[in-house]
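QA checklist item 7 of 12: single-chain prediction sanity check.
[x] sequence parsed
[x] length recorded as 229
[x] structure emitted
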Amino acid sequence: MSKVKKTDEGKAWAKRKLTSRRERRERNIRNLFRIYCEGENTEPEYFKSFPINTETEVFAIGLGRSKTALVEKVIELLQEDGFLENQANYDKDRQLWCVFDFDTNGEKGEREDFDNAIELAHKNGLKVAYSNDAFELWFILHFQYHESALTRHEYYKMLNRYLECNYEKDGKTKAFSRSLYWLLLANQEKGIQNAKRLHESKMTESYCDQNPCTTVYQLVEALNECTKK
């Protein structure tokens, strides 16, 4: 790992701990997941909660960046650590993911930014778990098939009822985020089926027009292949 610049010390991504190649060999690590998220609590804590097997390593972190800015930072970090070497020849045992939302605010250029981010990631051999409009759509789909475009705040209100909490206040904390995998596990297969059906219905549209849509289910399916049996 290259030395962190003094001006970047203390930043979340600068504190990352990536297992060395030698240590991975000693631990017999076969499957590597590098999951870089927009959010700093909900997404990384949720993915880190998957009960993975001893042959798998999951590194998930929130970088506090969105869309193209996130993807550019991820490419920079992965290049520093040598994880983009030969990535064009995709290896399913080395999974490099970006996780971000549209989170539309009506700002100029946000539609192009969202599409560009996904295309830039794919061009560099990265997978994308994107959500339009918000990551919480993935949670909603565990309880119902949903095909109406809503804002993230409307999703929060729905989750208040489904999860019996104040989602915007308490549900986005690290502690609660760690519990989401287990809270939703009984309905996970339903969530996957609903998300896949929704995604397939939107695939002819531009990414920015796919509202609602989420591909988080693809990352969940990949992690499920590496969970303890």
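[x] summary fact logged: Residues 188-202 form the longest helix (15 residues).
[ ] second reviewer sign-off
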